[in-house]
Each structure stands twice: as structure tokens, then as C-alpha cells.
Amino acid sequence: MSNFEVQFQDFGTFDTSAFLCIPAALHFRRVVCGGEHCVMAYCHDLVERGAHRMLEILGVGTAIMENAEGTLSKDIPMVNVRLPMHPIADPTERLVMLTWLWHYFVAKQRTRINVYFYDGAFWVRLSGQVYLELADFEWAAEVLKEVCHRVNAGEYKNLPERLRSDINKIKIEDE
To answer: How many Å apart are CA 113 and CA 98, to the nearest integer?
Structure first.
């Protein structure tokens, strides 16, 4: 299994009941929110403000991912933020850390934040949504700041053996 496959093998839920709300959701977006143009403008503005606020909270070692043309996040309400975590060279050790993170987010913070490794650094991808506000990005930044401190202190190395033994069964091909 490649490092890419390991990082992105979990794609969410298998529950398809969300499709039942599509007509009501489209009506809400059109009537309450003012239409798709207003929704997209709000979400794009929110993600820009949210990402910059996250950089302020997370501090040194953070950045917003962008390409040379400056178009990576131009027309979409999504942003990738580099986290202030020490790089982990060994792919198996990275998987241990990412597994620990997943369990930490669910058990301690009651949330899911997907962290991924790219180009020698750990990143998080966030999106602007009509039901979010700036305070949600600030909350996520505070959670990520705490978890980055814990990872940099090596706390992930205390991953329970039952989880670590599953990781040892996976053959990981490095980038």
C-alpha cells in the first residue's frame, strides 16, 4: 500500500440518507442564503479570513499552500494550512502519528480533522461552508495548536499496542 493510499483510505461515511435532504438544502440555499453566488462568496471570504486567522493562532512554521500562479484556492472555498509539526521521515512512524491524531480528535475533541503529509510537512485542508463562521476556524486552530504541541513532544509514540499492531501489518511504500 502506498503512503498516499494509507493517508487517504478513509473517505467518510457509508450512510446515504443525506441524499434525502437535497431538495430542502437547495431551497435553503436559494431562499434563505440568497442563491449560489451569495453562498460561494460567503464561503470563499470565510475561508480566506479563517485561514489567515489560523496562521495568527498557530504561529511560526505555518503557511497557506499556494502555487506559483496564485490560483490554488482562487475560485474554491478551500485552503490547505501547513501545521507547525516537526517532520517525521519514517513513513511507518508518520502512520503511527496520524493514527494517534485520528483517535485524539475523535476521543478528546469530538471532531474529525484530516491531517496529511505532503512535501515534507504536515498539512490540514479546511473548507468554508455556509453553516460555519470565523469562530469555527479559530476553534480548529486552537485544537490544532494543542495537538501540534503534543505531537512535537512525542506524545503520539504512546499509541496503544492494539492500534500499533495493526499498523505493523501494513506494508508502506514511501513517496
So the answer is: 11
Contact 113, 124 (CB under 8 A): yes
pLDDT in tens, 17-55: 888 999 999 999 999 999 999 999 999 999 999 999 999
Percentage of the residues of the chain whose pLDDT score is greater than 70: 87
Query: For the chain, how big is the Rg over CA atoms in Å?
Result: 18
- Cα–Cα nearest to 87, from 119, 129, 130, 45: 119
pLDDT, position 19 = 86
Dihedral through CA 150, CA 87, CA 135, CA 44, nearest 10? -170
Strand ranges, E, within 32-159? 63-64, 78-82, 115-118, 121-127
Q: Which residues contact 87 (CB under 8 A, 6 or more apart)?
A: 120, 121, 122
Question: 53-82, pLDDT tens digit by residue?
Answer: 999 999 999 999 998 898 887 888 999 999
- Residue 17 is given by DSSP the state G
